[in-house]
Specification:
elongated, alpha/beta, homodimer, five-stranded parallel sheet, Diaminopimelate Epimerase, Chain A, domain 1
Chain lengths: 315, 315
Amino acid sequence: MDFKELKRFFETHDDYLILTHRNPDGDTVGSGFALWNVLRGMGKRAKVVNNEPFPSRYDFLYEGYEDSEFSPRTIVAVDVADKKLLGDTLSEYEDKVELCIDHHVSNKGYAKQTIVDGNASSATLVLYRFIRDQGIPLTDIIAKCIYTGLATDTGCFKYSNTTPEAHIAAAELMAYDIDFVNVNRRMFDIKSIGRMTVESAVTNEMEHYFGGKCTMICVTKALIDQTGVDIAEFDGLASIPLQVEGAVIGITLREHRDKAGFKLSVRTTDPVDASAFCRQFGGGGHIRAAGCEIDGTLEEVKAKVLEAVREMLGE
Amino acid sequence: MDFKELKRFFETHDDYLILTHRNPDGDTVGSGFALWNVLRGMGKRAKVVNNEPFPSRYDFLYEGYEDSEFSPRTIVAVDVADKKLLGDTLSEYEDKVELCIDHHVSNKGYAKQTIVDGNASSATLVLYRFIRDQGIPLTDIIAKCIYTGLATDTGCFKYSNTTPEAHIAAAELMAYDIDFVNVNRRMFDIKSIGRMTVESAVTNEMEHYFGGKCTMICVTKALIDQTGVDIAEFDGLASIPLQVEGAVIGITLREHRDKAGFKLSVRTTDPVDASAFCRQFGGGGHIRAAGCEIDGTLEEVKAKVLEAVREMLGE
């Protein structure tokens, strides 16, 4: 399906339900509301939904959004690589998705028609190409939605998926009232008190091995209980150990809630292969980010892990 | 002085000493080594100096750099807004700077000739314009130096000084071997163990007032001694209190080392005026970032500050 066909699709369909993925991020929310605005501009009825209510940190993306009551006739998913990512609330639509607009090469092709480009830094960038290509009017709010997805998925132009196209799009979008300073503050700087407490707690307990080449944090049930912070705030800590100067392998051990043993998240820098490291324990992943599970007490797991690190580093 | 005259300047002068500012950042170091490479390409001798040895985190910018012995005849400063920023080691050159290339509107004009553009996001961007305008060969290392300055001074394209030109330059520079992922990791993600300890300690002690609208950290002599971390690691903490969700005024109190009383750094978001807040205590600054000093014990200073916050927030 090319962009001309996509425009034709929008022209010939009505009453859209736009699905976004669970645990929403700036790209799925930005894509959802960008598309809502595009469809509204074409005189269509649409609504944007998620597994849960959208977190308030994204409220600047639904400026001008009006929720209306109608029976959806066209189901579209944005930035949703797999129908399982829709979540329980939206699972009734899993097999009814007419169109999916995405940028994950891993897209499962669950929709009847899919527009996916793995070279696009964000799903909003795919929408932006469509808007430019087909001469769709670009408004301030659409520009802000597109920028937000782009900034979110590239870590504000920091990650390896940042392309020259991403920078050029950002330059073009700055001609609109996108208030990118505020967008980036909301996406990257602001943290809940709970999250700050968690980060501080794990940093306090960080362990350093092999002259600082290996750093480790241990998120035990005891630590979680001790902080008194909601468990959701303990997600996404895996990048912290590798922030330490000199570290080449950063390991996060997280104790299972419901069974014995630990989940490991491993992050590395050149030349350490995180995937090879985790394969020893039956896990896997990418060269710089991988994971596995290990049974045992904290002491046993640590001993196994450190022995494997010692071998890998040739210490 | 326009770019044509600048090129003529370089052609007609020899044996350059390139001065960078003390407490060097990615922009002054990037500008220094970019210019060194440009001058070498023109067959000139040059060296790049700083008040102190360059920190090792910038070593990727001096790939291929050779320090040679010669008597400098042409003194050039890059990204140095004020001769006082050269530091003690370089103070002998304060009144001998022939040329300054900078992007600070506040540049004092201490050099015989100055090229300054306050609209450039970084000093390296001024150099980039010159390189493009005059058809100077752009190499991988020059591109990497320019990108580093640009990323550093814009907070990786996050701060309000980010311009469309900055994004377009980044897109163009990505055609070279700049390894921007590694550059940004070094500039933004990596922290010393000491710094992590300090951030964790101040976050642990963070105080929340007025329903979370005001957050405060107190860097006392006792806290500094207790952490056992080098005092330099306690700089630049002022942005932390405002990272808390819901905070509109973030205050950092820092106890003076050598006298009684505290230095305040105040950061705000819309609509709180940090400058107006600090003027009450004889200080000043910008609308979103300001400072002042207050005498008294920690308890006395806190009481004064919180009373002023109460009034400002209308609580």
